[in-house]
Amino acid sequence: MNLDKIASEALRLNPRERAVLAEAIWESLEDPYFIPNDMSEKEALALAKQREKEIEQGDAVPLSHKELMDRLRK
To answer: How many Å apart are CA 11 and CA 2, to the nearest integer?
Structure first.
């Protein structure tokens, strides 16, 4: 079954069933913002500041929620 067929079928569910399905799918995804447990708070803050600097300098481009989800689906 392809994605279009699954989406079409899912949209036929009632709102509660769609919400339950959406939650189950969401929970099955790996967290794209996962920070390893062995990273200290200081290291995490340094990483966040570095990422912010990269964005401000144009070395990195932030993604919208839609872009992130599109990439995760691939």
So the answer is: 14
